[in-house]
Design brief:
By secondary structure, the protein is an alpha+beta fold. 33% of the residues lie in helices and 26% in strands.
Length: 281
């Protein structure tokens, strides 16, 4: 728990392990017991047949909301499922209080299908700046963390994204067509060119991790919900990568971005992809 007059940086130095424990406990209590065991009544649609939510999403978010709020009194939570129930609650991301940004099950479709490609995403931000993030793939038992100015790590090992190999096509994970409007598809058209190999993304959080690990050249996404991007954006930054909107500006978790935007292994790749996105818009 944060002490009186303790800064967020001091809180993180003392309590990052407590946040990690909360994330692991939420997954162990609410997500993994339902993995490959979901009953029909535990799965619902939100906006349509591709936009799924499960009891695991709701209960894991409730667990994390309680645990993280207790760790950092005075903080607020912006969680995907809570915002779905009360869209106005998203505005807290632009307030003065420290904010926990939570996606309890990122890659719900994969989770529902019994695929291991899902994760839990937690980020801590204040004044629109992401200060720390946790990306946990419970079915794989892999945890990536990042603290601003202190690097990114996967299972305790430092991550360096590096630069794509010269002369090779850029492999770019893009917004999945099932979740993309016709206008958004048009914004991504610039990626269909020589030297680029776009493919549909899976879990956004795991795609960001792939960029941070140097396994994927870049992402290109056409939506800006902070719970999908906050954790991964910091992870990529702290691994040496960069992110830019099609207007050539860094992505802002508070919104108002010129979409689509990219997160890439290095600055040169980010600029190249942002240029292609600007040309396709």
């Amino acid at each position: 728990m944060i002490e009186e007059n303790e800064t967020i940086e001091e809180f993180l130095a003392q309590h990052s392990a407590d946040v990690e424990e909360a994330v692991r406990k939420a997954a162990a209590a609410e997500i993994m017991p339902r993995f490959q065991q979901l009953a029909e009544h535990e799965v619902d649609q939100k906006s349509g047949p591709h936009d799924l939510v499960t009891d695991a999403d709701r209960l894991a978010e409730r667990f994390l909301t309680g645990a993280l709020s207790a760790l950092l009194p005075g903080s607020v939570v912006v969680g995907e499922e809570a915002v779905h129930a009360d869209p106005a609650s998203y505005g807290a991301i632009r307030g003065d209080a420290p904010v926990w940004i939570i996606d309890p099950v990122d890659g719900t479709r994969q989770f529902v299908n019994g695929d291991t490609g899902f994760c839990t995403l937690v980020a801590l931000a204040q004044h629109g700046v992401v200060l720390a993030s946790w990306t946990y793939a419970p079915a794989l038992d892999r945890l990536a963390t990042a603290v601003r100015g202190q690097g990114a790590h996967l299972d305790g090992v430092r991550l360096w994204s590096g630069a794509p190999e010269p002369g090779r096509d850029l492999e770019i994970a893009t917004s999945h067509p099932d979740y993309t409007t016709q206008e958004q598809k048009r914004g991504l058209l610039g990626l269909w060119t020589d030297g680029v190999a776009p493919r549909s993304c899976g879990s956004a959080g795991l795609e960001y991790l792939a960029v941070a690990r140097g396994e994927l050249s870049a992402t290109a996404f056409s939506w800006e919900a902070a719970w999908d991007h906050a954790a991964g954006i910091l992870l990529v930054e702290e691994a040496g990568g960069a992110h830019l909107t099609r207007a050539g500006e860094p992505f802002r978790i508070t919104g108002g971005n010129a979409l689509p935007f990219t997160a890439a292994r290095d600055t040169a790749t980010a600029r190249r992809v942002a240029g292609l996105l600007a040309g396709g818009a």
